[in-house]
User: Fold this.
Amino acid sequence: MSDSEKNDNKKIELEKSSSESENDKDEKEKLDQDDSDTTSDEDEDQKPQTVVVKEPLLKKKNKEEKLPKGPKYKLLIRNILLRETTLSQPKVRFTFCGNRKVIDERHKGGEKKKIGKRGTVFTTCKATVETGGNNAGSFSKTFVKYKRFQSYEEIKEQFLKVELLEAGCCCRSTSKGFVKINLEELANSSIQREVQCEEHKKGSHKIVGKVYFHCYFQEIFDFKLHFYDFVGKSLYHKENKLPDPYLHLKIEPKFLNLIKLSKNYTKRGCESSHELNTNNPRWEEIGQITYRGILSELENEDLICNVYNHSLLKKDPKLCEGLIELRGFLDYGIIMGALANIQESKVKNERTGSKEIVRKYTAGGSIEGIVECVDLPLHRQYGDIILLKPGRNYLAVRVLRCQNLRSTDPNSFSDPFVIVEFGGLKQRTRVIKRCLDPVFEETLYFTLRVPVLTEVEVGKLGNVQIYVFDEDQAGDDFLGSCEVPLKDIVKSPAMDAGEGKNKIKSRLLSTSLNLDFNAEETDQSIDVQFWFHPDLPEDFTFKDLQIKQKKTKLKKVYQKRIETWKKGIPETHLQEGNFEIIGADESYCEHLISEYISPITLPKELRNINTILRTIKCFTFENDEATFGGRQDVWCSPNFFLSLMKGSTEEHAALGVSLFLGLELDAYLCLGKTKNGVDHYWIMVREKSGDITFYETILSKAYKLENKWQGTSVDEENQDEQRKKKKAPKKEKEKEEKEKEKKDDSGSSDDDELEKSKKNKKKIQLEDESEESDNEKGNKPNQNVKKNKKIPYMTIEIIANHNNIWANIQETLDPSEICYDLDNKKLWNPYVDQEEGFKKKIKPFYDQIRLRPRIPLRRAENFALQITKEVIGGFTNFRHGNHQKTVFLKKFEKVISGGLSYLEKIESNEYTEKDKLAFLKSKGKLTELTPPGYTFEGVPLNFTYTDKVRIRKHIMEKYDFHLDKDINTIFACGSYVHPYYGGVNSVWVMICVMRVNPQEEEESEEGEEGEEKEKEKGKGKETKKKKEKKDSDLNSNDELELDEIKKDDDNDGSGSD
Assistant:
């Protein structure tokens, strides 16, 4: 028998055996290898046997090697317009995801070739040229394309090509000009786009025409919406009967979307538990809804809200219902809307004689709550277009152009954009780069959110506010603002308004408004148009309706009270301190400082003092002179401050007090002076124990003073607890009783109780140690508090909250020596005093404060990668210009970013012992990764903005690491971005330098001199060295590894962090 036949027989025996051991499997693999070696080209009969054995193994490998699916995007192009073109028969061609290149090798004797794929092509028909001589054309077609990419990195390499064609005879068109748009830029920019198509010939860049179109390029995503903390107000109920209401929310998708649903999309509605005997319920938890689609489709959907009355015996009757638009829920995090009660009655039809159902709508109350999106796509477009729905009324605002804007950037230009606010909604235009006379020509639609279309309800929406900003990643710069009364729009004559399909005849107001800025008359102006779509009824005249107009000066009632209030303050205090309680906002309107404070409904993850202080610190600190161009003492309204994301100390402190009031703390705004005699604002909290805690927003530190007021008595605390228990539903009480019964029945062994007591003792010991040294994580306001130590404040003159203002009338203004019993009129002079006849309540002059949600983690990671690339690129370009070598080690990036994440927890006082140990381990890893013979030096820096260019300039101006002339220096860089509520971020960047240790250089020089002396001594020692080298070569691998470990151990701790 041949060797191959013997191997086949052994294989058959192994396959017949039911239980094969691991050794048998190894023998089988060896025999297969022998077969592959011994088989020749002539033995073709043996090949199929080996194929049969290996097929299932290949299938299993392919299943394991399957990569996860990449992101899927939707491209939608519509509303295409052509402007300022020189072509007679123009066409527009869009090429999506093409990488075709033209290579001309004719100068080498070759040919002109096209390499790569062309991509998906969409070409419009010939333009229908409009009359008027402006060379404009419109196209009615739309272009839709779905594409799945392998990863987000692939999007950076693809383009959308917009090309202008000249239609010729015989269906042939010639290209006249084009422009390319990167898909990543397209996914992060405005939906409304305007591009210039230029000729690409040698020596000519003539503009052929401008193409304006709406381009949606967004990821198809599973949005998980979480609804909680909903409050109902004045819900409809029958006389003398309070309902047991519960809330049901749902989103009804289109029929086409139902076909493409994912598994998570099956839950399209959620429902709360019912509350007992109330028409002002509060539902803490409602549930989660999953929606599949793009973000623009989600924001155009309606949330259907139904309130039912819980009943045990019959079907739950519906109390009221309403539709709430989801537009703007990502920017605000709060949704609110009016509800209507529907009363159905059967009426006979005179013609047919049959009974018909007639519905009457009456006011049924309102609801308000928090909605959070669990995860968001990596990219997000802005400037969304509202889809006009039948049966609804809209206010259209067309922003035409701005003129003579001031320059805020160092290049003597600005990057302007416009924000329009109306009826609790906010929309913005696209950004036009480097321009002082931008032309927008964009139309923004605002739905009239009213339960019934009447003059009174429409008048409650208020006037139209217009703001112009300069885009800046560190915080947008304010350029100007204006206000348009709603009466002026209603009184306008009826004219043709709108463009394309949305052309209607309505009341049209075309004006040119001056932009107010810095109280001086400027030439800044904006041209806008307003109309209703569809037009309001002719009866709407607003003659009897009084809409609140903007008043620049404080109310006379408040001014008179200030005069009498200051008479109760000692003259010495008035001379030494600052007792001004009036603040002018960004639009020159005067208000009391307590009007800038109002409680904020907080999301669950922000209900912590440490996280609140950290978020406030992440807002950029900037003086009023820099923000408002020389204007001083400006009090920004809270929503305006949140949109700017920068301001002075008064804005930070007022926002902190509003957030603390949302935690139901006894918080106040303090006005006083620092040790240097400068006016300053900070936060104060009165604790129930009688202690006082000052919170400094700039440093995120707390200072505690013990026994500074009477505190709350035990009876008052018990009353508060009893009130909370009364509000709790009976179901929760029944659940608690059942749980107690189960515990009593089941019982617990003595061993379990001993183990629990040991664990509790360990926890108590750890907490005591952490409070003294590490300031462990927790929600108590006593953490990270300096008790009975020197405070950084010299005087305190005023204390204010959202209800009242108090002046310090004690003998001294020193905050550490006074008492804080605000009810004692001998110590504090109240502004609102019922005994003196001033009973007017202080109310905020703005809508409810709305915090932006956090950016998704994937977007934060993308910011961190862009920052590291910018810093590395800046270093390499600078050193390359000076003919110096630069080396950046990539293996440090993950270690640095991980260490910076723990450093962020330490800075925000939200860390545990494990986090502290992990931070120390990351330090040790950095020293381990440093090459042998090098010293390590690293500097972590914290920023409140994500502007990568500004961060790189700051690092290169402040630190001279890039100026190192040593050729052997090695660099490393890493960054970390932590998102917070309000749209702010904490950005960490660490730049590291590794230099050659000078001690080892001296040792190497001494070693060279010693070798020369040894050579002179004789040949005897050289022979010994040769023998030692031969012996070392036998175990060279082991000794080299040990030497490297020893060198790394010697270098531990040598670098400075």
